[in-house]
Amino acid sequence: MNRRYRKTVIAGNWKMNMTASETKKFAEDIRKIMPRAKWCETLLCVPACNIPVASKAFKDLRISVGAENVYFEEKGAYTGEVSAEMLKDLAVKYVIIGHSERRQYFGETDQTVNKKVHAVLNAGMSPIICVGESLEQRETGITNEWIALQVKSALFGVPADKLRRCIIAYEPIWAIGTGKTATAEQAGEVCSNIRATIRSLYGARVARSVTIQYGGSMNEKNAAELLAQPDIDGGLIGGASLVPEKFVEIINAANQE
Ligand code: PEP
Predict the structure, then answer these.
(1) What is the rounded distance in angstroms from the CA atom of residue 226 to the CA atom of residue 185?
(2) Is 118 one of the annotated active-site residues of the chain?
(3) CA 24, CA 19: separation in Å to the nearest integer?
(4) Which atom of ligand 1 lies nearest, measured to the CA of 215?
(5) Rounded to the nearest whole angstrom, what is the distance from the C-alpha of residue 47 to the centroid of ligand 1?
(6) DSSP-based three-state secondary structure for 83
(7) CA of 240, closest atom in ligand 1
(8) Could you tell me which residues come within 8 angstroms of residue 20 by beta carbon, excluding any fewer than 6 positions away?
(9) 171 an active-site residue?
(10) Ligand 1 center to 203 CA (angstroms)
(11) What is the pTM of this model?
């Protein structure tokens, strides 16, 4: 983390978990243990249908509500989709874009990711752009090239003033939901390469202001070590964000002096 130049952001990704009533129960439980506001910004990205209930339940808890996906078109005949304006209207500030599960199961490509990034930025919100390599790509030794390509494609056409609103989440696919975490050094190295890619596109001043998260089985035990890496400015957390005690421990790790 480097709080001098950029914000630390701990974000939960609830995926397709938690009903509206479970969301309310989670809010009641986390209320009892939520730390006072410090440096780290906290949010939970929830299923779209539960955004209103989550916003109400987390209102005075210093937890913002984010979305897990968006469609890039403004409006029209796109049955089942949700637009950026619709999310904005619900006071959503952050939207996860290009999660590997969306790339794997729902055919998202670097091109659709780029369109979604523009839609979110044009609506005044912040995209959390997910990038990450497969195990095969890591073993072949092409991790950094692959991720640089994903970052460049996602940011294609994004001007520097809007880039400041973007978060990049480095999520090695082999570490998501598997209990396998990248070592702090592996994660730190890729995150610093992501910053180098941004530097090559936008210059050093802009690059140092961008929040880069790590995601992939981050939990209450490994968070502090991962967050100690200079280029890891937060976490995108799946499983552990569903358990109030675990999520709070991760927030505490991000709030350490
Ligand atoms: C995720 O969903 O982005 C994620 C990192 O999941 P998990 O923490 O469960 O690996």
Answers:
(1) 8
(2) no
(3) 9
(4) 5
(5) 15
(6) strand
(7) 8
(8) 49, 50, 53
(9) yes
(10) 30
(11) 0.96
